Amino acid sequence: MLNDFLNSIKGELTNQIAGKTDLNPENAKNASGVVAETFKNGLAEKAKQGKFDDILSLFGEGKTSTGFAGNLINNTVGNLAAKVGLPKEVAAKVAGFAVPFIISKLGSFASEKGKNNKEGVQDLFGDLIKGSVKDKLLGGLGKKFGF
């Protein structure tokens, strides 16, 4: 469900990045992919750890000033610099508006789906949790049988 959500906003995110920076269309598209990937990985890590309250903090008041939101922004800056080759200042500018944009859209998406509570968040991100358990199980079997 998270992948569907991110795919549904990627075009708008790319337009936001292109409109608020001097990035060419190719770099704006690459940047939006990195921003979305970093956001997804951050949420997946929290979901795998069972820290759904941290994810829920993105839906409340002050949602973009939480510690978790700050971590998402910082990780995005690093990834934009490393993967897209953006200077740190440009990466910080992009992350500074792109991550809050995704957070806002995610809050609306969760509310529309009736998933803006702990059980709803667990449901939204259940595929991320199930995937990690499946990967661990298959990875362990693969090692046992020499794959």
How would you characterize this protein structure?
Residues 131-147 have low confidence and may be disordered. The two termini are 30 Å apart. The chain has one domain. The protein contains 7 helices and no strands. Helix content is 80%, strand content 0%.
Write a short abstract of this structure.
The protein has 147 residues and is mainly α. The chain has helices at residues 2-20, 25-48, 52-56, 67-84, 88-112, 118-124, 126-144. The radius of gyration is 16 Å and the shape is globular.
- Radius of gyration, rounded? 16 Å
| Anisotropy-based shape | globular
Portion in beta strands: under 5%
Structural class by helix and strand composition: mainly alpha
Number of continuous helical runs? 7
Return the domain count. 1
Mean pLDDT: 83
Q: Could you name the ranges where pLDDT drops below 50 across 5 or more consecutive residues?
A: 131-147
| Spatial separation of the terminal alpha carbons | 30 Å
Helix content: over 70%
Instruction: Please report the total strand number as a whole number.
Output: 0
What is the string of helix and strand elements?
HHHHHHH
The largest β sheet comes out as: none
